[in-house]
C-alpha cells in the first residue's frame, strides 16, 4: 500500500508540473456531474486539487443526466459532465447542453475521432473485442468473420440490446451499411451457443468453462475480473481467457469510452477547461484510467499492469459521433433479425 501511495504522489507531482503552465487558479471550486461513482473519480480529482488548488464538488448522477440539466436550465451548477458510454457522452451535446471547448492541449492529446465536434472528449477507452481461452490458437480476428459458419454454435454474447453491443452494431452499420449489417447479425445469431443473456462477466466464465469457443466482451470486464474484485472464482475463470485483437477489415478495434464535456451553463467555464486539460496529462490519465482498468485515451500514458498485459488495441478511425448517430438504426436491425428471441 505504501508503494502505491508513493507512486500516486509521484504522478501528482508530475501532473502539477504540467498544470503549472496553465496558470491554475487558487481557492475556487467547480462542480462535476458524474455518471461514474464518486469513489472512482476521487483519486484524480484529489490530484487536480493538489496540483491547482481548485476544489471539485462531485455530484453522482446515475441516470437522467440530460433530464436533470434540462430541468435546471440556466441555474444549473454543473461545470463539467463526466459520462460512461458513448451514448451518454454524446447525448448532452446532441441536446444542446454542452459548450464548445477550444484547447490546443486537448486537441494534441485526444485523437479527432474521439472528440465530438469540440463539444466532448473521450478520457479513456474500452475496446470491445473477441475473447477466447488463453490456450486457443486464435491470434486475431475480424468482426466481419464472426458471422462465418466456422463459429456455428460456438459464440456467446450478452443481450445485443445492451448499449455496448448496440454501439458495436452501429459501428458495423457505419462501415458496411444496412443490408450487410442485417446479414451479419443473422450470421451471429446462427452462431450462438445459446440465447444471449447476463453480462460480459458471464461470457468470460462460459469461455473458461468450455461452454463457448469465443465470445464478445469489453476489456474492462476481463481486467476487473482478473484483479480479483469479484472474488477468487471469477479471477480464476478470467485468467483462463484472453482478449483477441479484433478489427474491422481495413480498420481498427471498436471502442466504447468514458467521456467528458463542459456544461452549457457552466458557472466556471475557464476552470472547467483547465480541469479537462489536466485530465489528459500523462499522469492524470494513468490515475483516471486505472480506476476502472480502462485504456488511457492518451497514447503516451502509462497503463495499469493488468491492462498492459492484455495487449494493444488500435481504436477504429471512424468518429464516435457517427456511431452514436446510427444507434437507433442498429436497435431496429437487432429487433428485425430477432437476435434476442
CATH homologous superfamily placement of the largest domain: Periplasmic binding protein-like II
How many domain units?
A: 2
Biggest beta sheet summary:
10 strands, mixed
Structural class: alpha/beta
Please identify, by name, the CATH architecture of the largest domain: 3-Layer(aba) Sandwich
Unreliably modeled segments: 1-7, 20-26
β-strand amount: 15-25%
Distance between the termini: 48 Å
Number of strands: 12
- Rg estimate, integer Å: 20 Å
Organism: Bradyrhizobium japonicum
Pfam families: SBP_bac_11
Protein name: Iron ABC transporter substrate-binding protein
InterPro entries: Ferric-bd
Write the layout of secondary structure elements.
Elements: H1 2-20, E1 29-34, H2 38-52, E2 55-60, H3 65-72, E3 80-84, H4 86-94, E4 98-99, H5 104-109, E5 121-133, E6 141-142, E7 155-156, H6 163-176, H7 178-191, H8 200-209, E8 214-218, H9 219-226, H10 232-239, E9 241-244, E10 246-247, E11 255-263, H11 269-279, H12 282-292, E12 295-296, H13 305-310, H14 320-325, H15 327-336
Parallel strand pairs: 1-2, 1-3, 6-10, 7-8
Antiparallel strand pairs: 3-11, 4-11, 5-8, 5-9, 5-11, 5-12
Helix pairs in contact: 1-2, 1-12, 2-12, 6-7, 6-15, 7-15, 8-10, 9-10
Amino acid at each position: 500500500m505504501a508503494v502505491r501511495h508513493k507512486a500516486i504522489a509521484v504522478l501528482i507531482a508530475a501532473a502539477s508540473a504540467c498544470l503549472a503552465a496553465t496558470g491554475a487558479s487558487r481557492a475556487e471550486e467547480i462542480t462535476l456531474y458524474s455518471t461514474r461513482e464518486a469513489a472512482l473519480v476521487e483519486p484524480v480529482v484529489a490530484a487536480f486539487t493538489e496540483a491547482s488548488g481548485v476544489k471539485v464538488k462531485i455530484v453522482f448522477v446515475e441516470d437522467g443526466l440530460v433530464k436533470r440539466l434540462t430541468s435546471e436550465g440556466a441555474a444549473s451548477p454543473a461545470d463539467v459532465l463526466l459520462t460512461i458510454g458513448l451514448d451518454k457522452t454524446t447525448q448532452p451535446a446532441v441536446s444542446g447542453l454542452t459548450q464548445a471547448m477550444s484547447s490546443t492541449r486537448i486537441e494534441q492529446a485526444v485523437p479527432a475521432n474521439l472528440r465530438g465536434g469540440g463539444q466532448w472528449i473521450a478520457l479513456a477507452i474500452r475496446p470491445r473485442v473477441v475473447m477466447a481461452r488463453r490456450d486457443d490458437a486464435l491470434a486475431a480476428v475480424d468482426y466481419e468473420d464472426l458471422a462465418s459458419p466456422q463459429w456455428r454454435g460456438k459464440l456467446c454474447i450478452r443481450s445485443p440490446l445492451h448499449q455496448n453491443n448496440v454501439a458495436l452494431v452501429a459501428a458495423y452499420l457505419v462501415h458496411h451499411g444496412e443490408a450487410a449489417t442485417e446479414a451479419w447479425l443473422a450470421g451471429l445469431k446462427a452462431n450462438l451457443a445459446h440465447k444471449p443473456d447476463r453480462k460480459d462477466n458471464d461470457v468470460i466464465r462460459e469461455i473458461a468453462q468450455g461452454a463457448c469457443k469465443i465470445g464478445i466482451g469489453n476489456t474492462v470486464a476481463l481486467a476487473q475480473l482478473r484483479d480479483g474484485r469479484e472474488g477468487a472464482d471469477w479471477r480464476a475463470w478470467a485468467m483462463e481467457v484472453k482478449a483477441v485483437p479484433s478489427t474491422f477489415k481495413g480498420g481498427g478495434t471498436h471502442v466504447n469510452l468514458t467521456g467528458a464535456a463542459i456544461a452549457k451553463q457552466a458557472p466556471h467555464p475557464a476552470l472547467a477547461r483547465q480541469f479537462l486539460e489536466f485530465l489528459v496529462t500523462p499522469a492524470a490519465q494513468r490515475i483516471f484510467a486505472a480506476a476502472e482498468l480502462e485504456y488511457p485515451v492518451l497514447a503516451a500514458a502509462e497503463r495499469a499492469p493488468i491492462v498492459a498485459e492484455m495487449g494493444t488495441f488500435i481504436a477504429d478511425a471512424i468518429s464516435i459521433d457517427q456511431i452514436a448517430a446510427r444507434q437507433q438504426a442498429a436497435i431496429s436491425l437487432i429487433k428485425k433479425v430477432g437476435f434476442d428471441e
